[in-house]
């Protein structure tokens, strides 16, 4: 039992050292990784197998959503096709299925998840499965299962197998009592959606596992993400993607948020690059485990005006969705991401004009190709 005794001693020390400056203890614990689930069931411990000199072997959960396929493409370019496995509970479209490894994985199935991690010698886990804000409000109990119970499975598997774990959080992790303009990394977080509550829970649990068990937990709070080739999954910022498709296809757009609703936003390339940079950042550059990242901030009115510079005939009308509006009104208007910029050099590439130009070029050429076919 000497290992258990050493671990209890280290854990006790960590508990007695309440500040965030837990670096020396974290390093000591990180040499042996275990999960509370393992301790209670069979008290077996696993050594960390990840070596910084190897290419990581990455598993992406919820990989068929707006962000996963793009992240897999980027990581596969960097680490090799077979080193990045996409997973989801949905059937992948043929081009995704043929572009690299895909596997069925329901994050609520702990045993299956563990089998995938073990059989594929996974070292990095990017946890994208979630129900987003608007969809979560429409199905609270499923959101609670996927976003909270699912996260517990992920945390235990990651701790047990010494994985580096990335879990995205969101502007939705803040609420009406948070400072909104700008919102700093550390402030009151009392969100009013199940999505936001589950993301605060994820931030806190991840940080707790980091300090308690040495889990290499990394988390970025994404703003609303805008992408041309993947559809958003039911969030409050979806309008900022839909406007481009409708503008190109019909010349008309009906917005479900009020014209003056200002929210932080980011082009998908910046978001995915930030994710890879955060995952690769040396541990000693991270003064925190959860960071805000930002690029721009705009309202529907300002976005429409920028689109109209390219497509002057675009007609925009407003039909407010009360659920989404209430959510947006409780979220940050502007995000303070100075800690990410100072600690690990975060820098965005896309501001509003570049975003609009890129989206219209992409969607325009896409619709010209489909018309020609
Ligand atoms: N897209 C954004 O604007 C945005 C902003 C902030 C944070 N995020 C976060 O980034 C992550 C990815 O976002 P996204 O936009 O790609 O989400 P999405 O809704 O488009 O995709 C989520 C995926 O999770 C899958 N999923 C649902 N239940 C599952 C289960 N039980 N097991 C396995 N997979 C399951 C779904 O099939 C879906 O493909 C999420 O955690 C989200 O909270 C996204």
TrEMBL record:
One of its GO terms (molecular function) is L-threonine 3-dehydrogenase activity. One of its GO terms (biological process) is L-threonine catabolic process. It comes from the Eukaryota. This is L-threonine 3-dehydrogenase, mitochondrial. Residues 58-293 form the NAD-dependent epimerase/dehydratase domain. InterPro entries: Epimerase_deHydtase, NAD(P)-bd_dom_sf, NAD(P)_epim/dehydratase. It comes from Salmo salar (Atlantic salmon). Its EC number is 1.1.1.103. Belongs to the NAD(P)-dependent epimerase/dehydratase family. It catalyses: L-threonine + NAD(+) = (2S)-2-amino-3-oxobutanoate + NADH + H(+). PANTHER family: L-THREONINE 3-DEHYDROGENASE (PTHR42687), L-THREONINE 3-DEHYDROGENASE, MITOCHONDRIAL (PTHR42687:SF4). It is an enzyme of class 1 (oxidoreductase). Pathway: Amino-acid degradation; L-threonine degradation via oxydo-reductase pathway; glycine from L-threonine: step 1/2. Catalyzes the NAD(+)-dependent oxidation of L-threonine to 2-amino-3-ketobutyrate, mediating L-threonine catabolism.
């Amino acid at each position: 039992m000497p290992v258990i005794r050493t671990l209890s001693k280290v854990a006790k020390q960590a508990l007695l050292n309440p500040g965030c400056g837990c670096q020396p203890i974290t390093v000591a614990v990180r040499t042996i990784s275990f999960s509370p689930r393992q301790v209670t069931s069979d008290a077996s411990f696993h050594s960390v197998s990840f070596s910084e000199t190897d290419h990581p072997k990455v598993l992406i959960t919820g990989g068929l959503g707006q962000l996963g396929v793009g992240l897999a493409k980027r990581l596969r370019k960097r680490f090799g096709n077979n080193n990045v496995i996409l997973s989801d509970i949905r059937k992948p479209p043929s081009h995704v299925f043929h572009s690299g490894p895909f596997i069925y994985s329901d994050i609520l199935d702990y045993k299956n998840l563990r089998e995938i991690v073990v059989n594929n010698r996974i070292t990095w886990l990017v946890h994208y499965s979630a129900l987003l804000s608007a969809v979560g409000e429409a199905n609270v109990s499923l959101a609670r299962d996927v976003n909270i119970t699912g996260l517990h499975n992920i945390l235990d598997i990651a701790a047990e197998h010494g994985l580096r774990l990335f879990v995205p959080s969101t502007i939705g992790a803040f609420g009406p009592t948070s400072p909104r303009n700008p919102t700093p990394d550390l402030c009151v977080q009392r969100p009013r959606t199940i999505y936001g509550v589950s993301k605060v829970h994820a931030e806190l649990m991840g940080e707790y596992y980091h300090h308690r068990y040495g889990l290499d937990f990394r988390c970025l709070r994404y703003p609303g993400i805008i992408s041309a080739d993947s559809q958003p999954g039911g969030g409050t910022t979806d309008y900022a993607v839909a406007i481009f498709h409708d503008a190109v296809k019909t010349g008309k757009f009906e917005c479900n948020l009020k014209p003056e609703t200002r929210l932080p936003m980011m082009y998908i390339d910046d978001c995915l690059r930030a994710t890879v940079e955060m995952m690769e950042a040396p541990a000693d550059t991270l003064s925190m485990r959860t960071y805000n990242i930002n690029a721009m901030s705009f309202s529907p009115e300002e976005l429409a005006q920028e689109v109209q510079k390219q497509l002057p005939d675009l007609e925009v009308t407003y039909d407010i969705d009360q659920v989404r509006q209430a959510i947006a009104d409780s979220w940050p208007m502007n995000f303070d991401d100075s800690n990410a910029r100072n600690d690990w050099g975060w820098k965005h590439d896309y501001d509003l004009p570049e975003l609009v130009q890129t989206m219209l070029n992409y969607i325009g050429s896409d619709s010209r190709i489909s018309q020609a076919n």
